[in-house]
């Protein structure tokens, strides 16, 4: 964060655009670092003058000052004086009081008195008097934690944070909502989840903002930015109260780099149970895409962030998946509360079989069964139980039920008899033409084609191929005959026509007639 | 189930339990439904109104606003005997429901009134003051009067007690965190509360009892209306003329005009010319503060505007730091040997120049807490008879019996001027008249500032 007067923004087009710097300012950043390094052992006044000189040479003095203010925090200054300045002052002022200093002569007498009292030279008094004032201090050491490029990154982040000082509200989308929500809470802010044209957006404000726009939470928003920018993908829009004029600030992935340097790419898991499940599910080839950090779901005034979501590959359909893996009664109660009030989505919950409800702390509403799985079911969600680790098969079974529902509905969109124009066409292509999954066309009748493996082939094509085949032909010849008709699955075709391949060594083989 | 009122982060949160009383709740003063957290919320400063309205409406409610940390009533007493106008002021405030602003001239004992109010209310109290010096002074005063530990927010310390003194800055940062601990809040120099950020302090505190103290309630920007809304109306007012000669020392003003040396004159003219040339070349006219603001904005990306501003600053520095002013001060110090003298200037660098030249104890914003306390104590005890300072003593700090003030390079602001005057308007033991010197540079913009003030 920078002091507000060092903020550089453009208000072009009514917006509020921080003037980020790129590699073209690298030389300036390097000179700023160099100026600090070059003034170790000198008085601060000299350093400040050198920085001011750099300001004059640059087009933008605020940029130079911005660099300097970041570097200044890394610099160590110290007072160098023959006697402690506070002591020198006290004695000098006491002596001056006794003398009653107005003229130069009186001053000089008071100074000599003070020197005598402290047993030092009058010049030592002169040197010590205000040696502890900032301009008189010495730069004792300076180690830049940043290379010039890193200073640019650091500057850009600080600049964006400073731009947020005057924000009254921020709206954020993030690929890491969990981290975002916890940062919002930690900073004493409040959020509301709303569906907007750009997706699910977290509207973040502070408690007092309910009664009118306030810039009070600007520094909290600035701090929040560091967490926001740690997500792999994010975007932030802020309403800025720019001396009474409302402006919009937009930031997104890439504008600023989080302070630790590298963005955190991998989402973290709450428990080993979840990590383990993700690995095993991804090893299967199911028509579902596993998403590890799905969007937050709204639960009355708060949000719930499920562990996973499954996206069906052939339709816009998502099943959320939550693993209930903790045992404290308050956790279970909170989860059940969330599950009762979560917005209307498909939600599958894995419940630990050992998970019981505490009859003492649970209200009647919650303990009709006294058993977690039943309670989840009672809240209209699908349940699988587990002990130790979630069985992938159980989850796949549930997903299959969804699949079969889809397939039925898709099959209704495909006629009972399908007659493609092509002589040869794969089931996948047929399904794609109807915009359905393969399973939805598999059971249909194909009056003008034969189903060979996963491909439809007109009988005429098959006979033509048959005529060209001779036992004893090499595999390579056979394959090229098939490929000339667009068939790649040789074994299915050959088996249909009553042939097989007799394998020879590693590479080749010969066509043989199958015994009847 | 009763409506539950709780203090949450600078607001009053109202939970309705299972009942649906939304129409009742929404008709309460300041109350809004909060879709972010559920329930309802009101700004903390409306708490007193809110509670009254709930009681009037006969709604069942449970008050948990101060429960957490408020504690029992404090048993406080004060030995001060109030002067008549002080009693009147306190009565007017009590009559207004223990809310409102008292306007009295500097030196008329506002602190004494506040102490009497704190003792009368007998509830945990937060006193908010503008400067570190006042923080020290109030802390000392309250400790002496009540013999209880006094908490402190500011000057590097954050210690909470049932009676706590805070700077405006610390109170701004901490209000939403400690609001539930104080039922009474005193704003010393309450006109500061008009500043946009500082308003939050009064907004975020639920304290039903509020007292504002000031020598100058009305602000040119009309912000005193905001203060009236947050603290209460002005309930009592007394002019400086009502008090002068009676409770306050009478004072005279002397004006010393000094000339720039030829070198200074040259430097001044050159810098001034650079500035004026720029204005001419860009057709910019400076009629108001906002015009000047425009120029400052422009200097961000226009090197010539920046050069012009720097030139203006140089010109002002020449004027402020004119050698002849140092000579003028030498003559004043020479003439007033044996008197108690405070020297003011707005310029920190000039303070240090004068401190070095005359070996005067100096207090500026740079001065550390210990040293500043020590200098003030020594001045009070008579070990020092002279002190030079940059504005930080402007308001309300108790510096007894100074009879000469010297103002160098005055800024022309009405408020600062009255309050600097107020500094020496302390009743003197021998009834002698106080004296104020105004030292200005001749034939410069500064002179116009001084004449505008007359």
UniProtKB/TrEMBL annotation, chain A:
Q: Which InterPro entries match?
A: Bax1 (IPR008508)
Q: Which domain of life is it from?
A: Archaea
Pfam families to which the protein is assigned, alphabetical? DUF790
Protein name, please?
Answer: DUF790 family protein
From TrEMBL, chain B:
GO function term, MF aspect, one = hydrolase activity
Every copy of the Helicase ATP-binding domain together lies at: 58-403, 91-235
Family annotation (Pfam families): ERCC3_RAD25_C (PF16203), ResIII (PF04851), XPB_DRD (PF18458)
Gene3D superfamilies, alphabetized = 3.40.1170.30, P-loop containing nucleotide triphosphate hydrolases
Q: Where is this region: Disordered?
A: 14-40
The UniProt keywords, alphabetically, are: ATP-binding, Coiled coil, Helicase, Hydrolase, Isomerase, Nucleotide-binding
Q: What is its EC number?
A: 5.6.2.4
Q: Which domain of life is it from?
A: Archaea
Catalytic function, reaction form: ATP + H2O = ADP + phosphate + H(+); Couples ATP hydrolysis with the unwinding of duplex DNA by translocating in the 3'-5' direction
Q: Which residues form a coiled coil?
A: 312-339
The record places domain Helicase C-terminal at 325-454
> Matching PANTHER family, A to Z?
GENERAL TRANSCRIPTION AND DNA REPAIR FACTOR IIH HELICASE SUBUNIT XPB, RAD25/XP-B DNA REPAIR HELICASE
| Similarity annotation | Belongs to the helicase family. RAD25/XPB subfamily.
What protein name does the entry list? Answer: DNA 3'-5' helicase
What is the organism field in this record?
Answer: Halalkaliarchaeum desulfuricum
């Amino acid at each position: 964060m920078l002091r507000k007067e060092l903020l550089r923004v453009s208000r072009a087009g009514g917006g509020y655009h921080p003037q980020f710097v790129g590699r073209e300012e690298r030389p300036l950043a390097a000179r700023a670092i160099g100026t600090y390094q070059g003034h170790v052992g000198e008085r601060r006044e000299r350093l400040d003058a050198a920085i001011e000189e750099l300001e004059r040479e640059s087009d933008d003095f605020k940029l130079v000052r911005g660099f300097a203010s970041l570097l200044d925090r890394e610099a160590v200054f110290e007072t160098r004086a023959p006697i402690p300045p506070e002591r020198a002052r006290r004695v000098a002022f006491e002596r001056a009081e006794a003398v009653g200093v107005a003229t130069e002569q009186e001053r000089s007498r008071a100074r000599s008195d003070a020197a005598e009292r402290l047993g030092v030279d009058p010049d030592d008094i002169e040197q010590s008097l205000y040696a502890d004032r900032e301009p008189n201090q010495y730069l004792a050491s300076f180690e830049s934690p940043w290379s010039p490029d890193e200073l640019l990154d650091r500057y850009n982040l600080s600049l964006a944070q400073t731009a947020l000082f005057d924000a009254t509200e921020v709206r954020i989308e993030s690929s890491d909502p969990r981290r975002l929500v916890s940062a919002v809470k930690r900073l004493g802010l409040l959020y509301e989840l709303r569906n907007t044209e750009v997706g699910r957006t977290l509207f973040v404000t502070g408690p007092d903002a309910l009664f009118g726009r306030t810039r009070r939470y600007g520094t909290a928003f600035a701090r929040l930015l560091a967490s926001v920018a740690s997500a792999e993908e994010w975007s932030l829009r802020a309403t800025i109260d720019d001396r009474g004029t409302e402006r919009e600030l937009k930031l997104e992935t890439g504008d600023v780099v989080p302070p630790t340097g590298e963005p955190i790419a991998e989402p973290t898991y709450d428990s080993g149970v979840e990590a383990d499940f993700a690995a095993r599910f991804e090893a299967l080839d199911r028509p579902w895409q596993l998403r590890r950090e799905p969007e937050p779901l709204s639960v009355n005034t708060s949000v719930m962030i499920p562990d996973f979501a499954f996206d069906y590959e052939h339709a816009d359909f998502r099943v959320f998946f939550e693993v209930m893996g903790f045992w404290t009664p308050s956790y279970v109660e909170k989860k059940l509360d969330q599950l009762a009030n979560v917005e209307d989505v498909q939600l599958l919950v894995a419940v630990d079989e050992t998970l019981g409800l505490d009859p003492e702390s649970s209200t009647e509403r919650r303990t009709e069964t006294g058993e977690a799985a039943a309670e989840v079911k009672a809240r209209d969600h699908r349940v699988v139980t587990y002990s130790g680790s979630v069985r992938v098969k159980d989850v796949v079974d549930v997903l299959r039920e969804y699949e079969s529902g889809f397939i039925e509905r898709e099959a209704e969109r495909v006629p009972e008899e399908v007659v493609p124009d092509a002589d040869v066409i794969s089931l996948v292509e047929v399904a794609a033409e109807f915009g359905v999954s393969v399973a939805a066309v598999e059971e249909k009748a194909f009056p003008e084609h034969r189903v060979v493996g996963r491909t439809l082939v007109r009988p005429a094509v098959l006979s033509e191929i048959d005529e060209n085949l001779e036992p004893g032909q090499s595999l390579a010849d056979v394959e090229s005959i098939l490929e000339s008709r667009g068939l790649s699955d040789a074994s299915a075709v050959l088996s249909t026509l009553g042939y097989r391949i007799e394998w020879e060594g590693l590479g080749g083989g010969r066509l043989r007639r199958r015994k009847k | 189930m009763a409506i539950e009122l709780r203090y949450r982060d600078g607001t009053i949160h109202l939970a309705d339990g299972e009942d649906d009383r939304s129409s009742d709740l929404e008709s309460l003063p300041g109350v809004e439904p909060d879709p972010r957290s559920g329930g309802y919320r009101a700004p903390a400063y409306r708490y007193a109104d809110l509670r009254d309205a709930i009681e009037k409406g006969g709604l069942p409610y449970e008050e948990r606003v101060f429960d957490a940390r408020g504690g029992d009533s404090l048993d406080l007493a004060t030995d001060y005997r109030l002067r008549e106008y002080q009693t009147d002021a306190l009565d007017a405030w009590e009559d207004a429901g223990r809310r409102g602003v008292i306007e009295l001239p500097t030196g008329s004992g506002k602190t004494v009134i506040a102490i009497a109010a704190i003792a009368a209310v007998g509830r945990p109290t937060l006193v908010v003051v503008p400067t570190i010096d006042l923080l020290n002074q109030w802390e000392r005063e309250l400790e002496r009067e009540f013999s209880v530990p006094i908490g402190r927010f500011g000057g590097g310390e954050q210690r909470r007690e049932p009676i706590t003194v805070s700077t405006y800055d610390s109170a701004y940062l901490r209000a939403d965190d400690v609001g539930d601990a104080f039922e009474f809040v005193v704003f010393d120099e309450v006109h500061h509360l008009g500043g946009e950020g500082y308003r939050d302090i009064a907004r975020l505190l639920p304290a039903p009892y509020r007292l504002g103290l000031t020598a100058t309630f009305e602000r040119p920007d009309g912000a005193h209306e905001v203060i009236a809304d947050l603290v209460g109306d002005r309930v009592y007012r007394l002019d400086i003329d009502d008090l002068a000669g009676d409770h306050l020392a009478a004072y005279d003003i002397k004006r010393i005009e000094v000339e720039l040396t030829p070198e200074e004159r040259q430097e001044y003219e050159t810098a001034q010319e650079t500035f004026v040339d720029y204005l001419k070349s860009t057709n910019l006219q400076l009629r108001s503060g906002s015009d000047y603001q425009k120029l400052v904005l422009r200097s961000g990306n226009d090197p010539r505007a920046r050069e012009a501003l720097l030139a203006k600053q140089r010109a002002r520095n020449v004027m402020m730091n004119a050698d002849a002013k140092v000579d003028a001060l030498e003559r004043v110090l020479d003439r007033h040997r044996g008197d108690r003298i405070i020297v003011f200037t707005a310029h920190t660098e000039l303070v240090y120049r004068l401190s070095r030249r005359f070996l005067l104890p100096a207090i500026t914003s740079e001065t550390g807490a210990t040293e500043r306390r020590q200098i003030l104590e020594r001045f009070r005890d008579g070990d020092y008879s002279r002190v030079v300072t940059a504005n930080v003593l402007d308001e309300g700090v108790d510096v007894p019996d100074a009879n000469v003030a010297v103002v160098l390079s005055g800024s022309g602001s009405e408020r600062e001027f009255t309050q600097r005057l107020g500094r020496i308007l302390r009743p003197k033991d021998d009834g002698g008249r106080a004296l104020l010197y105004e030292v200005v540079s001749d034939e410069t913009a500064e002179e116009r500032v001084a004449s505008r003030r007359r």
